[in-house]
Model the fold of this input.
Amino acid sequence: MASSASDLGKHVRHRYAEEARRLQAHWPAEQVTLEELRSRRQVKLMDGTYHEMDSEEAEALMSQVPSFFWPFMRVPMLFSYVRTETGISRYMVLGDRWQRRLVEILVTGNYSAEGLTGLNVEQFLRLLRRYRSLIFVSLTL
Done:
């Protein structure tokens, strides 16, 4: 019986690893600055294909961010989904302080020195509804 459980565990880990590799192929291989976003709406993905960012979403995002920040902030915005041991779900902002500031501006309308490091589910869903084509999420167990 123990061997059966061990085999099942190996199978689950193997399937998870395969799925993670498959999803990783659809992760952005590059990001563009908001300055570049004015004329460039595609980013290359890890598998060599391209992702098209929605023009209306891009314009809406750029209207929320002061233009003097455009050379420093990049899209698509990258997040990692994390569920804590206590069952709380968070979406952690991936990238430097400029990426965290970008998310903070879009969520709160303000910015701080460090920006937001993570969002709760409600904040993330609000952001996702507005900027669907400008967001990528990875999963962490």
